[in-house]
Amino acid sequence: MGDAVLVTGGSGFVAGWCIVELLKNGHTVRASVRDPRRAVSVRDAVSRVVDPGDRLRFVTADLLSDENWDEAVAGCQYVLHVASPLTATRDEEQVIRPAVDGVRRVLRACRDAGVRRVVYTSSCGAVYYGHPPRNGPFDESDWTNLGTGKMSAYVKSKALAERAAWNFIQDEGDGLELTAVNPTGIFGPALSADATSSLGLIKRLLDGIPACPDLWFCVADVRDVADLHLRAMTAPASGQRYIANASDPVSMLTIARELRERLGQAASRVPTRKMPDLVVRLIGRFNAQMNDLVPLLGQQRNASAAKAERELGWQGRPWQDAVVASAQSLIDLDLVAH
Questions:
Q1: Are 298 and 133 contacting, i.e. CB atoms less than 8 angstroms apart?
Q2: Domain span at residue 328?
Q3: From the candidates 150, 156, 158, 274, which is the catalytic residue?
Q4: Does residue 337 sit within a domain?
Q5: Whole-angstrom Cα distance, residue 154 to residue 85?
Q6: Average pLDDT for consecutive 10-residue bins of the chain (338 residues)?
Q7: Is 165 helix (H, G, I), strand (E, B) or coil?
Q8: Do the domain assignments include residue 338?
Q9: Taking a C-beta distance cutoff of 8 angstroms, is the pair 325, 221 a contact?
Q10: Which DSSP symbol is given to 317?
Q11: Active site residue 158
Q12: CATH of residue 211
């Protein structure tokens, strides 16, 4: 029997696959959920891939409350802190406060309980924003510069929360180990209809939005992101950041064409034209989700996963497989408009 591991935000897209990988590798898993009624659906989703038996249990805990975090981490050797708000909003505090306060709350409980290591799910949102364009890729030594340029509340929350995590370890960690995983755009198959938050882009394409905004993404498959969490969890060295990325920047239009080519009739509504930037800006005045995209128009940021590949033997699958798996899972879950 492997070590006991807590996965926070157990009902989420990335967390679900982390639970799957932990169970496959023999660990006992405790998953935190904000609503205890979600436990049944999470167990059912995980069971589609691996039999959890009696090795998956749940605890109710919220990033905005101290309640139950001591219970959540008790007896765990490792914690994968995956939970983080992913909301399009003009109210930055609605996203930033749970992310920053939540990571401190979880780390404090881990320290007090004698947890060995926390693997924190950060993002390349904490790596490559607020910098002038560059030819080469960003790496783990880079940090988002919040003092320059417009960026979404989500990007700000990831940058501020990861900084808060490292500051806590330095000032109050008392021997607690921390490693951060910084994925680029996360795609791949959804385990359930309740855990598709990162796949909104693919759903909008399949549902037939009129055209593709001039957006570019680096791609990491959610299954590979989960695999990197486990590698970082047991790696000899802690105190590291590891970027998860498997592609150069890919345009939304290129993703759309890949879906049409690979999925045929199932992707018949996917657009084949680019949306003018002016249209995106106009819609963004009235739509918070579209407004978050405006600062990203035409921006191509690359990130190197060489460190994860070199130090942890990690390898990401091709971006084409990740985006097609995203779409196929949405179709199979009957989440695409008819």
A1: no
A2: 4-332
A3: 158
A4: no
A5: 8
A6: 90 97 97 96 97 97 95 97 73 85 97 98 95 93 88 88 98 98 97 87 94 95 98 96 97 97 96 94 86 85 98 98 98 93
A7: helix
A8: no
A9: yes
A10: P
A11: yes
A12: 3.40.50.720
